[in-house]
């Protein structure tokens, strides 16, 4: 992990997993933007910051996925810091079993309760929402970036750096992830259009770091989502069960899927199916005791 200055008092702790943003206050305390995937990396964060004489005032969680809040519990215990998140994401952070529960629709099987999907619980201190917000005496602009998750937030530091969480993915990451995870496809499209209007700012991606060609990255993300949408539309030209849809998507995208990946893909495909049904392009019905989807 390496501490990099982006601009002014805005930094990033970069690693092979999701990057952690950082804003340094005048008193040498700091706001982390996410906390990384686990206790091991969280301990490394504390060591790096301790070498500079910095302490953690708080953690701003963009969303509740484990690679973004997995370090919360350890850091909060060690630094007695605040944790800020949206109302929906706070519920998942406080009760992380809800993430695998939402994928499995019941108490999750043990397979889905590992640290990849279910981080250690932590306690959100403050519910925060969109708009200009005072954080430790400094004004930050908070953005609603719903789409990848139900309550994802972005944050613009006073240096004009916009941390977008997982609302955009860099080109090299898109090549590795040809079917993006979304919880609400319609909201994701809205989020990307809103980000396009903010493209004069400097963007920092959790998976990809600082980027300059913001409109191009937005277009690339649109392309991946629209490609997946068109594949689903083609599959649904004949009635299919969700299992049949899954099999076809995996085959057409040449995906390598283990059991964890399967449930993650299942959840994302469900978001696409919700979008098609809610937009009036597809229907859902039962036939011969099977639940089926089809284009109208």
From TrEMBL:
It holds the Pfam family Lactamase_B. GO terms for molecular function: hydrolase activity. Keywords: Hydrolase. Residues 19-207 form the Metallo-beta-lactamase domain. InterPro entries: Metallo-B-lactamas, NDM-1-like, RibonucZ/Hydroxyglut_hydro. SMART domains: Lactamase_B (SM00849). This is Zinc metallohydrolase, glyoxalase ii family. Gene3D superfamilies: Ribonuclease Z/Hydroxyacylglutathione hydrolase-like. The keyword Glycosyltransferase does not apply. SUPFAM superfamilies: Metallo-hydrolase/oxidoreductase.
